[in-house]
Each structure stands twice: as structure tokens, then as C-alpha cells.
Amino acid sequence: MSKRSDLLLSIADDELILGWRNSEWTGIAPFLEEDVAFSSIAQNEIGHARALYEIAAAELRTTADELAFDRKPEEYRSAPLVELRRLEWARTIARHWLYETADEIRLAALKASDDPEIAAIAAKMDREEVYHRMHAEMWIDRLLSTEDGRSRLNEAVDELWPYALGVLDSELRPELRRRAEERLGRDLPDVDPVPRGVHEAELAELLEEMTMVRRSAPPGTQW
Amino acid sequence: MIYEVFRQERKGQPLQHAGTVTAPNERFAEIYAREQYGRRQESVALWLVPRDAVSEIDEFPDEFDLKYRRVDGYSIKARLREAREKAGTLELAPEGDR
Predict the structure, then answer these.
(1) Which residues lie closer than 8 Å to A90 by C-beta, 6 or more apart?
(2) Nearest residue to A136 via CA among A168, A174, A172, A98
(3) A140 phi, psi to nearest 5 deg
(4) Contacts of B24 in chain A (CB under 8 A)
(5) How confident is the model at residue A189 (pLDDT cuts 50, 70, 90)?
(6) In chain A, what are the domains?
(7) How far is residue A176's CA from residue A160's CA, in Å, rounded to a whole number?
(8) Among A6, A12, A91, B68, which one is most buried in terms of CB atoms within 10 A?
(9) Chain B partners within 8 Å of A131 (Cβ)
(10) Which of A180, A159, A187 has the alpha carbon at shortest distance from A81?
């Protein structure tokens, strides 16, 4: 597989798996408005995944659906951060914010890519990600505004920090650290990143659930 | 806080009441309103108004039945008929108006 396809798949897998994880809040988010907003963000992420899979599919002579649903768990290129199942709101918001912050850094680098197709899709995604970041940032402000919120956020960020670092290539990690430390007003621990390529046990369960309907019909079924 | 949301469907049209969002502050309200009333491209503009900022008037007393102030106080049809008769154009009027 080319470096280009590998890059496209890693971002697409991040967006697909995070979109799926975030959609697990649909119907049970803390209140109705948040339910609608967070579900909409989840749908946007899955839309980004589709656009990226389509570009990769053209190169790999396959289809976006086959890339999204028909690979083995170990073939996914997603970062472990997005695979974790953490159905607890402070952790969900911490993950959402860490991912969006890392994604902003990654997209900025991709927008400057020599590959016009990659630069264009990065710019297009970023125009939607702006709203995801606004959503994440307002929640961070909200959590930082009370003692209880701050301690829950800090605890969640400490747990997720090695995973967040693992979203980015090593040269982009210092920028993530700089932004996160500035935002939280504290130092974050020096830890080894949880790298892309290893998977959390939860991923297999997620894929099992995500592909259940597709597997129930003969291959090639048109939906 | 409850925010009343008004939305504009197309440029140039009046903003119409769309519903409400409940949010802890204006920033949350803006994000939620955008998702609830704009994510399907159904709006070109939204107004958010804190419910407390709305002044409501819902009593319109008319103790003396001043019906001449109201449109239903005039019989437009009869007057139109008179005017048409005068002008000699009654036969040009639609069937029901003669």
C-alpha cells in the first residue's frame, strides 16, 4: 500500500470509528439539545470518513464501503484514542477535545500538502471541523469553570493523554502538548504515546456491531 | 436558559419562529440552534432571543365593540357592487360578486 493510501486510511479510520463512538450517545446524551448536536457531529465525522475512503478506494481499486466495513480489525489504521469505549460524559468531552485539537494540527499540515487532492479534502473537512472545535471548546470552558468539572476533566485528560499523542506523527506531537498545556493551564505528563497500529480490545467489538447489518446480507447487496 | 429561535428560510424572507433551545448560555445556544435548525441547510439565518428578553402583549380589550376599527366592520362586497353599478361595469365582475 502506498504511503498516500496509508495516510488517507488512517484519517478515514479515525473519523469513522470516532463517529461511531460518538453516536453511541444518541438518545442518551445529558440533555436533548446536546444529543442532537453531538449526534450531528458524529454524522459529520462519518461523512469525512466516506470522502477520504472514496479517494483511497480510487487508488486501491475498491469501494469506500469495502474499505469501511470489510477489513479485518488488525487492518484498521485508527488511533487507539478513538477506539476506546468511554460512555462517561467528562471522558467523552475530553476525548472529543483532544481529538479535535490534534485533528486541527494534522489538517493544517495536510492543507499545505503538495498533493492537491489531499490539500483540498483537508480544507473541506476543516470548514466543518471549525464547528466541532467550537463545540469542544465551549465544553472545556464549562468544565473548567467549576471545581468538580475541572477535576473530572483533568482526570479524564490524564488517562487519555498518551492516546492523544498517538493520534499524531512524532513531529506534530510537541504542538499538541503546547496547545493542551496552555488550554488547561498545567503541565501534562511525559509519557510514551500509544501508537497507531496497535488496537484496543474494544475495536473488535465495535466492528462486530458496526458491520452486523452488512454481514447479514449477501456480498454486493445494494442498500 | 430558554432561547426562542427564529429562522429565515431564504434571503429576503421574514424570520419566523422555529422553536426553542435550552442551553446554559448564549455560546451553547448558538451551537445547539445551528445543529437543530440549520444542519439540513433549511435556514440561511437564525435569530436567538433569550425568552426573558421577549415582551409579550396578549390582551386586546374591546369593551365597546368598536367594530368600525376592524376590517370585518365593513362590507367590502356590497360597496364594491355599488361602485361597479355606478361605473356600469357590473357585468365584468366575477359571477359571485354580482
Answers:
(1) A143, A149, A152, A153, A155, A156
(2) A98
(3) -65, -45
(4) 142
(5) very high
(6) 3-185+195-216 (1.20.1260.10)
(7) 13
(8) A12
(9) 31, 34
(10) A159
Q: pLDDT tens track of chain B, all 98 residues?
A: 999 999 999 999 999 999 999 999 999 999 999 999 998 899 999 999 999 999 999 998 888 887 777 777 677 788 888 899 999 888 888 877 77
pLDDT, residue B52, reads 95
CB contact under 8 A, A135 and B22: no
Domain layout of chain B by residue ranges: 2-53
**Band of residue A109 on the pLDDT scale cut at 50, 70, 90:** very high
Q: How many CB pairs under 8 A join A and B?
A: 30
pLDDT reported for residue B94: 82
Query: What is the C-alpha to C-alpha distance for residues A131 and B27, in angstroms, rounded to an integer?
Result: 12
What mean pLDDT is reported for chain A? 95
Q: Which residues contact B85 (CB under 8 A, 6 or more apart)?
A: none
What 3-state DSSP class applies to A186?
Answer: coil
Lookup: cell for A141: 470552558
> Which residues, including other chains, have CB under 8 Å from residue A131's CB and lie 6 or more apart?
A41, B31, B34
The CA angle B50-B54-B56, to the nearest 5 degrees, is 150
Burial B60-79 (b: 16+ CB within 10 A, else e): eeeeeeeeeeeeeeeeeeee
Give every CB contact of residue A93 below 8 A, 6+ residues apart in sequence: A136, A139, A140, A143, A153, A156
What number does CATH give the domain B2-53?
A: 3.10.20.520
- Tens digits of residue pLDDT in A69-88: 999 999 999 999 999 998 89
Minimum-distance CB partner of A33 among B21, B27, B39: B21
